[in-house]
Amino acid sequence: MAITQRDTDTTYRCPSCAGELAVSYDSFECVDCGFTPRHGSD
Ligand SMILES: [Zn+2]
Questions:
Q1: Beta bridge partner(s), residue 20
Q2: How many angstroms is it from 38 CA to the middle of ligand 1?
Q3: Has residue 28 been placed in a domain?
Q4: Domain containing 32: what range?
Q5: I want to staple 14 with a disulfide (CB 3.0 to 4.6 A). Which of 7, 19, 24, 33 is the partner?
Q6: What is the whole-number distance in angstroms between the Cα of residue 4 and the centre of ligand 1?
Q7: Would you say residue 5 has pLDDT above 80?
Q8: Nearest to 16 by CA among 4, 30, 6
Q9: What letter would DSSP give residue 8?
Q10: Residues, CB within 5 angstroms of ligand 1 (ion)
Q11: Amino acid 40: pLDDT
Q12: In a domain, 4, yes or no
């Protein structure tokens, strides 16, 4: 049986401009304004 990976199907929204957040390695980056949310406790 083939394993179907759909974990990255979720779309994240930028809190700054409501644009899409693209997955970049370990973090995210907004495709519109380049916003990158910080990891860890906030
Ligand atoms: Zn943005």
A1: 13
A2: 14
A3: yes
A4: 10-37
A5: 19
A6: 30
A7: no
A8: 30
A9: G
A10: 14, 16-17, 19, 30, 32-33, 35
A11: 56
A12: no
Calculate Rg over the CA atoms of the chain. 12
Specify if 29 maps to a domain: yes
Instruction: Tell me the pTM.
Output: 0.55
In angstroms, what is the span from residue 20 Cα to ligand 1's centroid?
7
How many domains does the chain divide into? 1
pLDDT digits (tens, 9 = 90+) for 19-41: 999 987 788 899 999 998 776 55
CA of 11 to the centre of ligand 1 (A): 13
CA dihedral for 15, 34, 36, 5, sign (positive or negative) = positive
Instruction: State the pLDDT confidence band at 6, using cuts at 50, 70 and 90.
Output: low
| Beta-bridge partner residues of 30 | 21
